[in-house]
Design brief:
6 helices; 9 strands; Rossmann fold; alpha/beta; five-stranded parallel β-sheet; four-stranded antiparallel β-sheet
């Protein structure tokens, strides 16, 4: 997937959060969005996901030179962000089965495989609401990594992870990164964006 940001801007009321963002992102150029808290990096990620509309400029999505309309890009997305909530009344098994109704897991993986990858096999029949913050984060990341998609969008992905969880995140990201177009929002924590070779500093677009 190739994503082209063309003179992109977003404002709320009369205040510009950022403007003039131009970049090309593809599977060979995993990209980190830097910025202080409140700088607009999460807003830019929402524009890339097509969940919000830019106030200025445009975004183009292409697969093998074929343009994908923005309203269809959701089918290509895997996301893990702090503002995405899990259905916590579900058990882990129910949640994973529910996810399968919308998208398959890659390489024929099953519900049990995803739980094992996230080190959650022993919690299969527990409600997600009793999970620790670290368990929930591993679950979000496992779903983003191992659901069939070509775009991976991550916002502060090591939040709530201890060192063992960060090591797990890095290993799993390396496994799935080969064919995915990756964008990571980060507060300059190298363990989050170690895989990125391109950066967008949102502070430069004020």
């Amino acid at each position: 997937m190739e994503i082209t940001l063309n003179n992109l801007g977003r404002r709320f009321n009369k205040e510009w959060i950022f403007k003039g963002v131009t970049a090309k992102i593809d599977s060979e150029h995993p990209t980190v969005i830097f910025g202080n808290n409140g700088s607009g990096k999460s807003t830019l990620l929402k524009l890339i996901s097509s969940s919000e509309i830019p106030s200025k400029g445009s975004i183009t999505y292409k697969i093998n030179n074929s343009v994908i309309p923005p309203e269809e890009i959701y089918s290509e997305l895997g996301m893990a962000t702090p503002y995405m909530d899990l259905p916590e009344e579900f058990t882990l098994r129910e949640l994973l089965q529910f996810n399968l109704k919308f998208k398959p897991f890659i390489e024929g993986l099953k519900v049990e495989d995803i739980a094992e990858i996230a080190y959650l096999s022993e919690s299969m029949n527990k409600q997600v609401k009793v999970f620790s913050s670290g368990m929930k984060q591993r679950l979000k990341l496992a779903l983003a990594f191992y659901t069939e998609n070509s775009i991976l969008l991550l916002d502060e992905p090591t939040s709530n992870l201890d060192q063992k969880g960060i090591d797990w995140y890095q290993e799993e990201l390396k496994k799935v990164s080969i064919k995915k177009t990756i964008v990571i929002c980060s507060n300059a924590r190298i363990e989050e964006h170690f895989i990125c070779n391109q950066e967008i500093d949102i502070n430069q677009y004020k």
